[in-house]
Amino acid sequence: MGEVPSGSAMVFGAGGAIGRALTARLLAGGRFAEVHAGQRRADMASLPGAIPFAFELTDEASIVAAAGQVSAPLRLVIVATGLLHDQQRGIVPEKSLRALDAGVMAQVLAANTIGPALIAKHCLPRFPRGERAVFAVLSARVGSIGDNRLGGWHSYRASKAALNMLVRNFAIELARSHPRAIVAALHPGTVDSRLSAPFQRGVTPRKLFSPDQAAGHLLAVLEGLTPADSGGQFAWDGARIAD
Ligand SMILES: NC(=O)c1ccc[n+]([C@@H]2O[C@H](COP(=O)([O-])OP(=O)(O)OC[C@H]3O[C@@H](n4cnc5c(N)ncnc54)[C@H](OP(=O)(O)O)[C@@H]3O)[C@@H](O)[C@H]2O)c1
Predict the structure, then answer these.
(1) To test the ligand 1 pocket, which listed residue (43, 46, 138, 221) has its Cβ within 8 A of the most ligand atoms?
(2) Is residue 126 in some structural domain?
(3) Does the Cβ of 138 fall within 6 Å of ligand 1?
(4) CA distances (Å), 170 to each of 35, 114, 166, 231, 239, in order?
(5) Is 3 domain-assigned?
(6) Is 72 helix (H, G, I), strand (E, B) or coil?
């Protein structure tokens, strides 16, 4: 007999390549009574069966409203948003100190660090106490300080390193009230998306995952995590990444 769907899952960034694939897999998996799919623009098509919501990472009120629309117990939140480059806003990953620009740094940190933190602020208190619930953010291996051999990409690396620190902080804080909850940062590998498109040269086809493959990997990793793993960073194959 199949599992009865229960609780809610939320995906912030369901219009992105990985976020959309995660949402599709959560819908197909049938484990959640509600799958809430958040995109920046309200007019963007949502996947059939998902409960759509609009949010903007730099608008805390939109995040409050999104968290408030969920009625069934919140058991999974995935933050699949991210910013690496944006031609229109002149955002390019910096290769040198010379390229640093305060305005660009602020925008990258706002999207990759502060926005996900605000989502945690408004979603984590809604986790049921005494039950397993998972909060996962898509980070990146380049945010690992211990793993950094190449340098460069100053703002993106720093924003993800700071995100990883917040994941550890939130895990410590949440464990006091929600001992079965898990907070984790995930590295999806290199995935074919708008974000990675300019940087895919040199990646062997076997190591360039489709968004659906990546979503499968990430959900399998989340499935295997226990509260003892809370606060950590995990790669797509489940391996722990150095802080
Ligand atoms: N692809 C890779 O190889 C790779 C590798 C390592 C880590 N990651 C991480 O994986 C995550 C997902 O990346 P992806 O490859 O799926 O990229 P993507 O297709 O570009 O998706 C990123 C999503 O973030 C949304 N977003 C950006 N700024 C936002 C804001 N201020 N408010 C609301 N939404 C915002 C974008 O919305 P719009 O469409 O409206 O702009 C987009 O839907 C990111 O955190 C990225 O750093 C990806």
Answers:
(1) 138
(2) yes
(3) yes
(4) 23, 13, 6, 7, 21
(5) no
(6) coil
23-73 per-position pLDDT tens digit: 999 999 999 999 999 999 877 788 999 999 999 999 999 999 999 999 999
CATH of the domain at 170: 3.40.50.720
Is 243 within a domain?
no
Mean pLDDT score across all residues of the chain:
96
Predicted pLDDT at 43:
75
Domain assignment of residue 14, given as a range: 8-235
> Are 194 and 240 a contacting pair, CB within 8 Å?
no
DSSP-derived 3-state class of residue 116: helix
At 204-240, the pLDDT tens digits run: 999 999 999 999 999 999 999 999 999 999 999 999 9
**Structural domain includes residue 241:** no
What is the count of structural domains for the chain?
1
Residue 123 near ligand 1, beta carbon < 6 Å: no
